[in-house]
From TrEMBL:
The name this protein goes by in its record: Inositol monophosphatase
Extent of the signal sequence: none
Organism field: marine metagenome
GO biological process: phosphatidylinositol phosphate biosynthetic process
UniProt xrefs under Pfam families: Inositol_P (PF00459)
PROSITE patterns for this protein: IMP_2
SUPFAM superfamilies noted in UniProt: Carbohydrate phosphatase (SSF56655)
Gene3D superfamilies in alphabetical order: 3.40.190.80
Amino acid sequence: WDTAAGDAVLRAAGGITTHPDGSVYRYGKSGYRNTEFLAWGQKNGWD
């Protein structure tokens, strides 16, 4: 949950937060822990 606010701001600006393997961050799952991440300024090529 500590990354959710920053992720929301980044997404609103057109960016995206992913795991290093390229999978999109998910919230509301049974395990709350999200580990390493990459923050991208543009999501081109990540759809």
